[in-house]
User: Fold these one by one.
Assistant:
Number 1:
Amino acid sequence: MAVLYDGTKKLFNLNTKNTTYQMKVDSYGYLLHLYYGSHINDSTEYMLTYFDRGGFSGNPYVAGNNRRYSLDVLPQEFPVQGTGDYRSVALVIREENGCYDCDLHYKEHKITNGKYCLKGLPSAYSEEKAQTLEIILTDSRTNLEVTLLYGVIEDCDIITRSVKVKNNSREKIYIEKISSVCLDFLYGNYDAVTFYGRHAMERNMKRAPILHGKQSIGSKRGTSSHQYNPFVILTDESTTETTGECYGASFVYSGNFLAEFERDQFEQIRFLMGLSDELFSYQLDIGEQFYAPEVLLSYTAMGLNKLSQNFHYCISEHICRGKYKNKVRPVLINSWEACYFDFNGEVLCQLADQAAELGIEMLVLDDGWFGKRNDDNSSLGDWYVNEKKLGMSLTELSEKIHNKGLLFGIWIEPEMVSENSDLYCSHPEWALRIPGKRPIRGRNQLVLDFSNPEVVQYMFESISSVLHQGEINYVKWDMNRSISDVYSNSTSYQGNVLYDYMLGVYSLLERLINAFPDILWEGCSGGGGRFDTGMLYYTPQIWCSDNTDAIDRVRIQYGTSFCYPLSVTGSHVSAVPNHQTGRVTDIDTRGCVAMTGAFGYELNLVALAEDEKTKIKEQIKNYHKLAPLIQKGIYYRLSNPFKEELGAWMVVSRQREKALVSVVLLNVHGNMPVVYIKLQGLDSTKYYRNTQDGKIYLGTALMKHGFPVQTKFGGYPSFQILFEAV
Ligand code: GLA
C-alpha cells in the first residue's frame, strides 16, 4: 500500500518504490511534517524537539500554558498566516474587513486508489500503482475548509501535492497567497538548483547555497517564462550527478509561479512552491472552491541524474497524453527559419518536394499564413487562411503536401490579438487592457482575455474551422509575449484574472485535443518561454528554444534535461551561419545535437549544397534507427557544458542492450589533450561493441575507466557512437 495511516499514532506514511514521506497530526490537531527521504518503516516523531523560544515565537492558545510549543519552529505540512509562524507561509487568507488570518486543524482524511485529478488543471494521471490521500483541515472560526491532496505514484518515486480551498464561511474571502507544497527540513546544508535564462538562452543551471533569509525565483509574466523555469532542486551540498540526496519539484502549471527557499533563525530550511502571490488575490465567493495547481515531488539518494530520470519517466508516462505519447515523432521541416514570412503555396511545395527527397516526413507551415500577415505587426486573431498569399486554399495546399508523401502541420497563436486585425476592430474589449491607459505592447501585439469564456469559445470555433480545412496532422501553439495590463472587462474583481486566464488556455487546449485527437501538438512561447509540465499535459512536445545554434543548444538542452525528457524537447537542424548567433557549425554537429530531441529541420532545403543533402539523408536514416532508443531510453548527463569545454550525454535502452553516446567539443585547441569520458548505466558484466569501429569493451571498464574520444580537426566537432551489447 502506498498510503498508510496509523490511527494510534495519527501517523501518515506515503511510500513509493524508494522513498517515504511522513507526517502526523499532533495532540493539538496541527499537521506536522516529519520526514521525506529514503525508505523508513518507523515513526520519526522522536526528531521533534520542544524548547521555550521566548515571546517572539508565538504559542497557539490550544497549547495552554505550554510555551515550548510554537509553530514558528516546528516543521509543518501546510503553514498558514495566523498561527505565529513568521517564516514564509503556504496560505494567506484575507477577509472582507482586511483581516489576515487562518488557523487550520485536522478534521478527517480519505485514502483512495488511483491518482486524483484536478478540475480544469493539468495533473499527473495514474490509475494503477497510485493512491490518493486527502487530508481535510478546517478553521473553526471561519469554517474555511482546506483539503491537502497527495498523489503517490510508486513506480517513479513521485509524490504529487495540490490543495483545495473551500469557502464555507459566511462572507467572501480572498486567497492572497497559496503554495501547493511546503517542505520543512529540521537541519542540513542545502543548495538550491534553479534554471534561469532569457529569450533564446533558456534554462541555464545555477546552484547556490540556501543562506539565511529568503531566496526566491518565479514569474509574473503570465507564462512560466524564459527567465526562470518552474522546476527546482534542493540538494545536499555534497550531492553530485551520481551520488547524494536531492529533491526535485516541478510545478504543473504554465502561468505565474513562486519557488521560495528560506534558512531560518534555527538553521532550519523551508521550501515552498506554488502560484505567485504577485498580481494575485483570488476572490472566493461563499460556497466556492479553488484548486492550487499541482507540484510533482521526487527524492533520491542517488544524485541529480537519478532525480532527472524519475521526472523523465513520470512526464513521459503520467503527464504526456494522446496518440503520440509513445510514438516516434515524424521528422519535420519547419518553414520559419527556411523562409520566415516570405512564402506562397509554390514555395512551400518546393520545400516539400525537397523534404520528401531527403526523407523528411512532415512540413510545418509556421507564422504568416492567415489574415494579412506578412510581418509580425498584424492579423493575430484573424484565423482565416490568406488564400491570396498562398495562391491556393489550405485544403489544396494540404492535399498537395500529402500527395508528396508528407504530413502537414500549421502554426497558431490563439492567445493573441494584433491591434491591426479584424478581431480587434470588432472586439477591442476582448484584449487585456487597463481602461484609460494606452497598452503595453509586446512584439506589437496584445493579449486576449482568456479569463473570459466567450473569448475561449470564439477561439475554439475559429481554430476548429481552420483545422477542418484539409488534413492537418500537427499544430504548433505559440505565445509570443509576456502579459501586462491585467484587466478583464468580463469581471468586476481583477485579482482572479491571471489564474482564470490559465484555466481558459487549458480549457481551449483540452477541447481542441479532444476534438482533434489525431493531431500532434507542440507547445511554444518564443521557443522555451512556457516549457513546463503543465503544457506537456496537452502538448507532448515543446519547441525548446528560438536559439537553434548547436553550441548554445548543448547548454540549453543540458539545463532542460534536469526535468524534461528528450521526447518532449523540440530540436531542429538549422542553417549556418546560424540566424541567432552567426556561428558556423558542422552539419554533423547540428545533427548530433538536434537528434537527441523531437527532431526536425528548419532551413531552406532548396538552397542546400549537394553534400549537405547527402548528409541530411544519412542523418534521417540514422535517426530512424536511433529514435526508439532516444525516445524511450534512460538519459545520462556525462558532462557539465557550463563548466567543461565539452557537452556529453548518453541514452541507454531499458534492457541495457544499446547505448547512444553523444559528444560535442565546445572548444578546440592546438595539440589537443585527449578527452576521456566515463559512460554510465551500462550492464557492468556485458561486453559492448562500438558499432562504428567494431571494437569491443567491457561495460564495467567503460563506466569505471572510461573511453577516449578521438580528436578531430575543425570547429566544434561531434561524435555520436552507438554501443551494442554482444
Ligand atoms: C516564435 C517561435 C518561432 C516562430 C515565430 C513565428 O518566436 O518561437 O519558432 O514560430 O514565433 O512568429
Number 2:
Amino acid sequence: MTKKIILTGDRPTGKLHIGHYVGSLKNRVELQNTGLYDSYIMIADQQALTDNARNPEKIRKSLVEVTLDYLAVGLDPEKSTIFVQSQIPELNELTMHYLNLVTVSRLERNPTVKSEIKEKNFNLSIPAGFLIYPVSQAADITAFKADLVPVGSDQLPMLEQTREIVRIFNQIYNKEILVEPEIYLAKEGSGRLPGIDGKLKMSKSLNNAIYLSDEPEEIKRKIMSMYTDPNHIRVEDPGQVENNTVFTYLDVFCKDKEKLEEMKAHYIRGGLGDMKVKKYLNEVIQDELQPIRERRKEFEKNIDYVYKVLEEGSLKARKIAAQTLSEVREAIGIEYFNR
Ligand code: TRP
C-alpha cells in the first residue's frame, strides 16, 4: 500500500509556543502516530530569511530551538522525516522553474503575503525573495508530491497558489508529474489560540505567548496576567465567558468538560473570581506542559543528536526532491545531454 504523503513546516524565527502546539504540532504527532502517512516536517529557514536576511543568527539559533520543540512534543525522527529547507538546493531550482508560471500581480494579490507586508511595514521596500515565497513554498510541497499539508487556515492562500502552479505545470508540459495537495486543517476547537492579552493571534512579536519551554513560574505569571472580562470587576459581578481568554484556553486544554461547564455557569451567575479561574487554568496548562518541558531538557543535553536528526533527515529529503526535479527538468525538456 502506498502511504499518503504529508508535508508541513515552520519558519524558525523563535521558540514554538502553545499556539503552535494546539494549532498544528499536536495534530502532526497524531497523524504521525497513525502510521498511515509518510510525514515530512520541514524547517523553513530559507523562507525565514526572506525577511531576516540581516539577522541570520536568529534563524540559526531558532533552527535548534524549533527542533527541540518538535522532539519534545513527540515528533519522532524514526517516524517523521525532519529536515532543513536550505539543505535541499533542488527546492531552489524548482522555484525558478515555477516562477515562470506565476505573475507578479498574482503574488501581490496573495492575501497572506498582503497582510504580512502590512504587518512588517515593508511599504515599498518588499524584498523580492519575500514576495515570491509562496512559489518557493509550492516547491517545498510539490518536491515531495505531498497529498496533505496540515497547516493553519492562514496558509490557505499558499495552498491555493501551489494548486494553481501544479495545474499549470501539468497542463503545459502535458504530464501528470506534480501532485495537487489538499490542505488539512487542524480539528475544530483546536484552531488558532489568542494571545494572553486576548489579541487574535499568539505571537512572539506581540509578546503575548506562552512557550513550550517556559518554566512553571513563568507560565503562572503569564496566566495570572491574562485578559478576562473587563466588566467583571468584583467577584459577585456576573461575568462573560465569550471572548474571555481564560475560558477560551480552558475550552482547548481542560479535559474535565463537566467541571468546566459548572465553572462557566458559576462565572456567568456571578460569585466566581478571575483569580480562581486562572489558578485552575494554571493547573491544567502546567499538567500539559510539564512532560514536554522535561523531554525538551533531556534533548537539550544532546545538541549533537539534534543536528544529527536534521542532517539525516535532510539527506533523505534531498534524494526525494532530486527525483522530482529530474522529472521536472525532463518534462520541460532541458535534460539536453540525457539523449
Ligand atoms: N509558510 C509556513 C509558515 O509560515 C511555513 C512553510 C514553509 C510551510 N514551507 C511550507 C508550511 C510548506 C507547509 C508546507 O508557517
